Amino acid sequence: MKALITGGSGFFGEVLIKELLSKNIKCVSFDINEIDDPNLKNKIIYYKGDIRNIDDIEKCFENIDFVFHCVAQVPLAKSKKKFEEVNINGTENILKLCHKYKVKKFIFLSSSAVYGVPFSNPIKRSTEPNPMEAYGKTKLIAENLCKDFIKKNLNVTIIRPRTIMGHGRLGIFSILFEWIIRGHNIPVFDGGNNIYQFIHAKDLAKACYLATMNDKPDLFNIGTNKFSTMKNVIENLCKYANTGSKTKSLPSKYFKIFMKISSLFNLSPLGDYHSMMYGKTIYFDTSYEQKTLGWSPKFSNDEMFIESFNFFKKNMKEIKLNKNYSPHKSKAKEGILKIIKYII
Description:
single chain; 344 residues; alpha/beta; Rossmann fold; UDP-galactose 4-epimerase, domain 1; seven-stranded parallel sheet; two-stranded parallel ribbon; 14 helices
């Protein structure tokens, strides 16, 4: 078997490739960047290209059985134009090629952002999407494109993961980790009692692999079954780090306005989705996914955060120097957020 992974050089893409290689599946990575893991470079085929250029992608489609579409313009980017070009047009490009070359399975990595702020929890497969910002809206449009190709007999599975964590996951979490290393307090909103679910990259990769065995189109919500409140996960990480950091409750009413305005003027690394969801409850009911896929998550929220924190702490110097990683593998700039750590 042979799989094409778009975004194979990204944080999750590399984890997924390792999972597929362990199942003796040949891997082709399509990305604008090369894979930086030296242990993977000689085990895969790499094509450099832009998902927005269909001719770039078509070069990868020799004898491909499965396609895992992981490329996305993530919330950190904040560019509505790029959201549309990459998340919508790029997805349509690869769907056309999957249909043309009759691939056996197309796995689309969507996002829980399509649900916006949920009216109730847990979120189920029957919950209607309600995206409230540009990133989530473009991911839902891409899902609808997938459904159009299902009608053309393309076997598509849509996977909506919760926020992905694990070894090497950085992005905005690098700010949290550095603050804890420096002993700064960490803000939570309104007591931090909102329930927040994450998913470890390895658990998500296993679910993606198992989805290839599903012989019909489907949709899966993927998240850990071991989670609690935002306050708990941050407090437990602070206790583990033992640097004196503690959680500090802030009123969301005022600070969300600050977050939104600072994001609007590019003074903060946070996107609209981060400002909207921090302090809100969101978690999936994954009973259908576990039964249908024969899948169960291994990692808890706490285990994921400790693993990501340890990676950042061990590799801080190298991470700060390297500017060529994908957004989720890079250190985010604090911007105006640095003010908060000195006033809480």
